[in-house]
Design a protein that fits this description.
Blueprint: H1 2-45
Length: 46
């Protein structure tokens, strides 16, 4: 009982860490694309 509970409590933060890393990576890639689009528009405008 305690062994399965400890493995579950060890596996739970690992999944959350992976999910946070994936979400953070996609968010940074979206920010990078938006920044490149904004800089390209500013270069074309000026």
């Amino acid at each position: 009982m305690s062994a399965s509970f400890s493995s579950h409590s060890y596996n739970f933060p690992y999944k959350w860490t992976v999910a946070i890393v994936v979400i953070f990576g996609s968010f940074m890639s979206v920010l990078n694309q938006a920044y490149s689009h904004i800089s390209a528009i500013q270069c074309m405008r000026f």
